[in-house]
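Inputs:
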Amino acid sequence: MTEEQATETASPDIEDSIIEIINMHKWFGDFHVLNDINLKVGRKERIVICGPSGSGKSTLIRCINRLEQHQRGQIIVDGIELTNNIKNIEKIRAEVGMVFQHFNLFPHLTIVDNLALGPIWVRKTPRKEAEEIAMYYLEKVHIAEQAKKYPGQLSGGQQQRVAIARSLCMSPKVMLFDEPTSALDPEMIKEVLDVMIDLATEGMTMIVVTHEMGFAKSVAHRVLFMDFGQIVEGNTPTEFFDNPQHDRTKLFLSQILH
Amino acid sequence: MEQTSADITASDDIRPPVASIGVIGWVRANLFDGWFNSLLTLATLYALWVVVPPIVRWVIIDAVWNTTGAECRDAAGACWSIIATNFRFILFGFYPYDQQWRPLVAMLLLFGLLYYSQDRKHWTKMLGYGWVAGLVAMGLLMRGGLLGLSSVETTKWGGLPLTLLLSVFGLTAAYPLGVILALGRQSRLPIIKWLCVVYIELIRGVPLISLLFMGSIIFPLFLPEGITINKILRAQVAIILFTAAYIAEVVRGGLQGMSRGQYEAAESLGLNYYLTMRLIILPQALKIVIPPTVSILISAFKDTSLVVIIALWDLLKTSQAVLSNPEWMGFSREAYIFIAILYFLGCFSMSNYSRRLERELDRDRP
Ligand SMILES: Nc1ncnc2c1ncn2[C@@H]1O[C@H](COP(=O)(O)OP(=O)(O)O)[C@@H](O)[C@H]1O
Ligand SMILES: [Mg+2]
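Outputs:
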């Protein structure tokens, strides 16, 4: 399932960062789940995060839209610092799309209503226009013919594409993906990765937690390796895979690349 | 045709044996399936044979329908005359006799609105306004004092309109209050959370009768001199407060059944708490708990009859009053059967409607 063609777009603007995480820590009770995270993500930059299970990858990206709360350090998204200010949090969430491992579509709404919900209620777009936006993005993920169905009637791959489209309807500035393909049957992984590659080609800023190394090689500008709540190393895909610096990284790569 | 266990094993190319399909198949599989079931079937048939004919004779064949109480005493069957003769008193209590068309119209209005509201396609803003207008009209009809309608004190209200008033208002006010309490109980703000917990547990810890007593006897003692609050209103509030606590616990169960992912998906779109609840969580959670909610609403409906103990003249009380009239003394079976039928119609339509609603919601989203 490797995508060999490299996705060439204008290189990201590292100076103009959209996300800035500075000396950030988080604990679950006594458990130090994120330990001194420093990360700058430039506009249009695409980052893949990998690492063993339990290393804190999900927690890190969930901190970026405040589904989890950090306890020390700073997270600044698009110029706004994440604090307890609920208005700021809602503003940031509207600008940051999130795709979950288990899709989390709204089962009581049709596909098109799932998509139109955000624009209508958060962006205050008129319903008709919101439905047009919804249909536009459903076309984009090649699933427009399912618009009137309910999530439960779709396959896993289709549901995940709908979930991506749902986020896109908000015209987010950043997209976060938390293992978007790991709950899918193997034959459905490619259709979801293809949609993500299209997104990359269009210059979307993306942070993707995944173990799809083919995707990382062809799409990422940077690959980060996390372990025990720390970012152990980060490098361009070529350097990262061909020349890993740390023993932990080497061990991890040898395990997942067989 | 009902699938029986016998033809589940039948494959497509082989037809099941004739004896396992059709009426004979059904009878054999369901009624005479082994000696024990056969015995039960025969015993049941015998019991029905013994019980049903006398009941039919009492209820219909030997019954009298339109006589005086004295004639009733000679009849072998039921004395439905007690209902026929006292119909208007049982239904309307002490409401002035020549004005009883007013509660009648009010009830018809209510039934009409309820009937129209059954269909979810009709749930629009207009229907909401329709309900408001309807309720105002009903209140005006009952209370009078305007538009040339003579004024009727609430102390004269009674019978079926009172029962319906207590239950329709009680249930429609208790439901949203219960939902709010359930949400409050999950609140992250400790004060709100504890207020809701204390409220729910206190109310659930006392019987409705004691709340009604408190409302009608103890509560007025605390009011400043000269201020009185309508007795019906006090009973109404007690019923609402009581029912809401039970609704809250059922709804809480539904909320706990929701996965974390639904909240997170809604929040990560930028929806605030109120919209997340209204658009995503409650529609799903409330649907899960339709069956237990309806059980509570049904029992609350029946519990409105407890207001007899604080001397409100609801349907049950007006019937009892008829029974204390020497002419009709002793015909309590007939009177209570009649009341039971009215209550049954109310409860049965609620449970029927809830099943229909569930079915519709299921068809919409498989
Ligand atoms: N809500 C939580 N409460 C307590 N511990 C948690 C919670 N969420 C995650 N953890 C723990 O934090 C660690 C990191 O979790 P996570 O970020 O999901 O890891 P990853 O996504 O890298 O597999 C795990 O050990 C997990 O058990
Ligand atoms: Mg994870």
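Remarks. Strands of chain A lie at 13-28, 31-43, 46-50, 72-77, 80-81, 96-99, 174-178, 205-209, 222-227, 230-235. Chain A is about 35% helix and 25% strand.
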